[in-house]
């Protein structure tokens, strides 16, 4: 728990540095924020290693909170490296705070869902593709929210210091569609690998995941085709992206939450 608490503190510290800097003309102290989050990520990786990689003969603990923590780490690392090239500063506090909270919860509420990944290497391929697909599309949902927020602030008559931290609207929109394209490709590969490597994607306990994932895949595909063919953009794309993210979240974590928390409670 001590390591979890320290990790949480460093994630929150980095978020606080960025948020307070947004209301200053010189902007956030990026070096301090990066150093803080690097410490948090290092501790987080050690926590994931000890929490997921239990005895090889027993398997891996892929509980809901462990998976959520792993996804949070992947998103945080991706967003950190992306921040050197892409406009995402306003999203970093949200990502870091959420990841820190998941780390803290995983320490406070231990749970177990052991999977024998080493027995079936193909399962590792499917799980890896699914995790990366969800991470990329979750980031796309964050960019959709950012796009909506920038559009809202630009319509306001009264300017504020926060406007100086907002990236260009078109730049964010271009990144959103690139993320949707990459995420949809990964989701496609994840679904294909599932149908290839798993016995039955529509068996009881698995069917809802498959159906919700297919619905999300269909929605993302329609968005990309509509943008490519008809030039779709704006509010409808934003809300469709967010809905797709919600469908995937329900697919990946919905049954886990019911089984690991509600039923146990």
Chart the SSEs and their pairings.
Layout lengths: L1 H21 L7 H23 L7 E2 L2 H19 L9 H17 L5 E2 L5 H35 L13 H29 L9 H24 L4 H28 L3
Antiparallel strand pairs: 1-2
Helix pairs in contact: 1-2, 1-4, 2-3, 3-4, 3-5, 5-6, 5-8, 6-7, 7-8
Structure description:
The protein is mainly α and 265 residues long. Helices cover 74% and strands 2% of the residues. The chain has eight helices and two strands; from the N terminus they run ααβααβαααα. The chain has helices at residues 2-22, 30-52, 64-82, 92-108, 121-155, 169-197, 207-230, 235-262; strands spanning 60-61, 114-115. Strands 1-2 form a two-stranded antiparallel ribbon. α1 (2-22) runs antiparallel to α2, α1 packs antiparallel against α4 and α6 crosses α7.
Mean pLDDT: 86
Radius of gyration: 19 Å
Structural class: mainly alpha
Distance between the termini: 22 Å
**Numbering strands along the chain, what is their spatial order in the largest sheet?**
1-2
Percentage of β-strand residues:
under 5%
Q: What is the molecular shape?
A: flat
The helix count comes to 8
Proportion in helices: over 70%
Kindly state the number of beta strands: 2
The residue ranges in which pLDDT falls below 50 over 5 or more consecutive positions are none
Largest sheet: 2 strands, antiparallel
The ordered H/E elements are HHEHHEHHHH
């Amino acid at each position: 728990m001590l390591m979890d608490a320290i990790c949480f503190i460093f994630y929150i510290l980095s978020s606080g540095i960025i948020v307070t800097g947004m209301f200053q003309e010189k902007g956030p102290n990026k070096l301090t924020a990066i150093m803080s989050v690097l410490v948090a990520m290092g501790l987080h990786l050690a926590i994931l290693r000890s929490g997921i990689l239990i005895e090889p003969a027993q398997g891996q603990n892929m509980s809901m909170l462990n998976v959520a923590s792993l996804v949070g780490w992947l998103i945080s690392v991706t967003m950190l490296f992306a921040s050197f090239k892409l406009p995402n500063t306003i999203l970093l506090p949200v990502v870091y705070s959420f990841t820190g909270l998941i780390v803290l919860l995983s320490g406070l509420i231990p749970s177990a869902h052991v999977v024998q990944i080493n027995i079936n290497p193909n399962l590792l391929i499917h799980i890896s593709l699914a995790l990366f697909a969800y991470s990329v599309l979750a980031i796309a949902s964050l960019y959709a929210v950012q796009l909506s927020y920038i559009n809202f602030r630009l319509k306001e008559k009264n300017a504020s210091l926060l406007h100086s931290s907002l990236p260009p609207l078109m730049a964010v929109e271009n990144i959103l569609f690139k993320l949707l394209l990459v995420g949809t490709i990964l989701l496609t590969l994840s679904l294909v690998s599932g149908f290839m490597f798993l016995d039955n994607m529509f068996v009881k306990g698995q069917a809802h995941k498959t159906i919700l994932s297919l619905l999300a895949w269909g929605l993302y595909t329609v968005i990309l085709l509509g943008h490519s063919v008809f030039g779709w953009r704006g509010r409808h794309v934003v809300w469709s992206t967010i809905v797709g993210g919600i469908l995937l979240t329900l697919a990946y974590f919905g049954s886990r939450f019911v089984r690991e928390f509600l039923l146990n409670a």
